[in-house]
Design a protein that fits this description.
Nucleotidyltransferase, domain 5; two-stranded parallel sheet; 2 strands
Length: about 110
């Protein structure tokens, strides 16, 4: 398992970075199942938010700039490279792999 941290960041940026780094680590084009407790990420791909953002000049439904655009663009690039299935898992629901990832994240917190 790989983990990391970054000072002066947000949970959303770290969630995005984790998925980007995970997809970057996979060589070639593969079918990938991404399990995440982040509705922010899963809903973006399941509901096609990113397609509307691109179409609308990276403005959200409120006509405001999309937060974390830099990371979204990187994630979209990597998601396009693979055949990704997005799987939402419940946070704090005693899912073994989600618990493992949460522990890694807590251990990588940069003060």
């Amino acid at each position: 398992m790989v983990s990391g941290g970054e000072a002066q960041t947000t949970n959303q940026r770290m969630e995005l970075t984790a998925v980007i780094e995970g997809l970057l680590a996979i060589p070639g084009r593969r079918r990938v199942r991404v399990h995440s407790d982040s509705a922010y990420i899963v809903n973006c791909f399941r509901d096609g938010w990113w397609e509307r953002w691109e179409k609308n000049g990276w403005k959200n439904a409120q006509k405001q700039p999309v937060a974390n655009r830099d990371l979204w663009e990187r994630l979209i690039k990597e998601a396009r490279r693979h055949d990704v299935v997005w799987q939402k898992v419940a946070g704090h629901a005693d899912d073994e792999l989600n618990n493992r990832v949460d522990a890694l994240a807590r251990g990588a917190i940069v003060g």
